């Protein structure tokens, strides 16, 4: 059965990751940390879709949050955010 | 396995930490320049990259190495510097979350490319027990030096660019290392670097914080902090 263009998913659909790989922790690649301004965020989830490492956590109550153990600081989330709610802050500005 | 320290007791091991792609060329330049400068002084040298770091991933922590010895180097089959005398961080954040002083020899000097105070960076060094081998932390804000000191953001990592060895930030960092550790002379470094002004700027602008028993100034301030004796 054929499908119309709009019915075809834009990429492969894979299950959301539920386990993490302890042998490939990429958090220490990061030198700019993504920080979300929750006042500006519209909860559109674009960053959640685009993060190449599935490091954007999203919940209805908390909104956008980042998994800093694996976030490698690539800045894709900040580039794709349509309202510019994600800024990149030098990692050494944070105590933790 | 016989360790390099047993085979080459007088060999200096320099480890330059950096970030894949964005800064890999500059760090390789720093290591290469130090080795070439040592060679210009008639010493025996080696310089190579870490083979397992896969530096073609943007931002990945990776390392380049240099070895300088007054005697012929007999260490050939050790592909990492397991006992560094000098640790260089081409990017400041590497101080956080990496065991940069792992295996460091007593009297190790750390040189960091940063605009921050050395005191503020000390707290990130972990595990803390390695701090006892640390003699000094030197900081050079190489990214902020003159317009001619550029950063090569080039995915070809030297294969397709013609910037030659030591055209930018890596040269300034090498100058800072020369001043902070005395491992090579400024003249020999200048003679081998493409950007001679960058080497001199790095040499002049570096600030050195002596460290003792893991703490800054614990043994009192030396009369001239720049004059830290090397070996
Ligand atoms: S910086 Fe990169 S890895 Fe980190 S959350 Fe954003 S897109 Fe994901
Ligand atoms: S892309 Fe921007 S606006 Fe959309 S959910 Fe992420 S942070 Fe919020």
List the keywords:
A: 96 residues; alpha+beta; two-stranded antiparallel sheet; 2 helices; 4 strands; B: 231 residues; Pyruvate-ferredoxin Oxidoreductase, domain 3; globular; disordered C terminus; binds iron/sulfur cluster
Explain this structure to me?
The complex is a heterodimer of chains A (96) and B (231). By secondary structure, chain A is α+β, with helices and mostly antiparallel strands. Chain A has one domain: Alpha-Beta Plaits. Chain A is built from 2 helices and 4 strands. The mean pLDDT of chain A is 89. Chain B has a single domain (12-210), classed as 3-Layer(aba) Sandwich (Pyruvate-ferredoxin Oxidoreductase, domain 3). Chain B has 6 helices and 8 strands, in the order H-E-H-E-E-E-E-H-E-H-H-H-E-E. Chain B is globular. The two termini of chain B are 26 Å apart. At the A-B interface, loops of A face loops of B. The structure holds iron/sulfur cluster (SF4) (2 copies). One iron/sulfur cluster binds at residues 34, 51, 53, 55-56, 66, 71-77 of chain A.
Q: In terms of per-residue confidence, which ranges of chain A show pLDDT below 50 for 5 or more consecutive residues?
A: none
- Give me the strand/helix succession of chain B: HEHEEEEHEHHHEE
Gap between N and C termini of chain B: 26 Å
Flag low-confidence runs of chain B: 220-231
Mean pLDDT of chain B: 86
Strand order of the largest sheet of chain B: 2-3-1-4-5-6-7-8
SSE map:
The complex is a heterodimer of chains A (96) and B (231).
Chain A: E1 32-36, H1 46-50, E2 56-59, E3 63-66, H2 76-80, E4 86-90
Chain B: H1 4-7, E1 12-19, H2 24-40, E2 44-49, E3 61-69, E4 86-89, E5 108-113, H3 118-122, E6 134-140, H4 169-181, H5 186-192, H6 196-205, E7 207-212, E8 215-216
Parallel strand pairs in B: 1-4, 4-5, 5-6
Antiparallel strand pairs in B: 1-3, 2-3, 6-7, 7-8
Helix pairs in contact in B: 2-4, 2-5, 4-6, 5-6
The complex binds iron/sulfur cluster (2 copies).
One iron/sulfur cluster binds next to helix 1 of chain A.
């Amino acid at each position: 059965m054929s499908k119309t263009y709009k019915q075809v998913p834009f990429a492969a659909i894979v299950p959301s990751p539920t386990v993490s790989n302890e042998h490939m922790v990429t958090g220490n690649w990061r030198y700019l940390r993504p920080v979300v301004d929750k006042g500006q965020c519209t909860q559109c989830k674009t960053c959640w879709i685009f993060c190449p490492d599935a490091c954007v956590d999203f919940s209805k109550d908390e909104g956008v949050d980042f998994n800093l153990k694996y976030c490698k600081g690539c800045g894709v989330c900040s580039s794709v955010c349509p309202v510019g709610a994600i800024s990149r802050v030098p990692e050494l500005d944070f105590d933790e | 396995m016989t360790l390099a320290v047993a085979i080459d007791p007088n060999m200096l091991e320099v480890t330059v930490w950096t970030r894949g792609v964005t800064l890999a060329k500059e760090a390789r330049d720093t290591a290469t320049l130090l080795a070439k400068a040592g060679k210009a002084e008639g010493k025996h040298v080696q310089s190579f990259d870490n083979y397992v770091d896969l530096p073609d991933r943007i931002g990945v922590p990776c390392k380049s190495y240099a070895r300088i010895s007054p005697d012929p180097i007999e260490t050939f089959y050790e592909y990492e510097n397991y006992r560094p005398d000098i640790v260089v961080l081409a990017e400041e954040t590497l101080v956080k979350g990496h065991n940069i002083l792992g295996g460091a020899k007593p009297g190790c000097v750390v040189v960091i490319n940063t605009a921050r105070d050395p005191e503020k960076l000390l707290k990130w060094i972990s595990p803390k027990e390695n701090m006892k081998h640390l003699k000094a932390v030197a900081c050079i804000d190489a990214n902020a030096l003159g317009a001619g000191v550029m950063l090569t953001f080039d995915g070809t990592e030297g294969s397709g660019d013609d910037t030659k060895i030591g055209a930018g930030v890596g040269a300034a960092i090498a100058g800072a290392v020369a001043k902070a550790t005395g491992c090579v002379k400024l003249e020999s470094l200048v003679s081998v670097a493409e950007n001679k002004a960058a080497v001199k700027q790095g040499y002049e602008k570096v600030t050195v914080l002596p460290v003792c028993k893991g703490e800054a100034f614990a043994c009192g301030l030396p009369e001239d902090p720049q004059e830290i004796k090397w070996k």
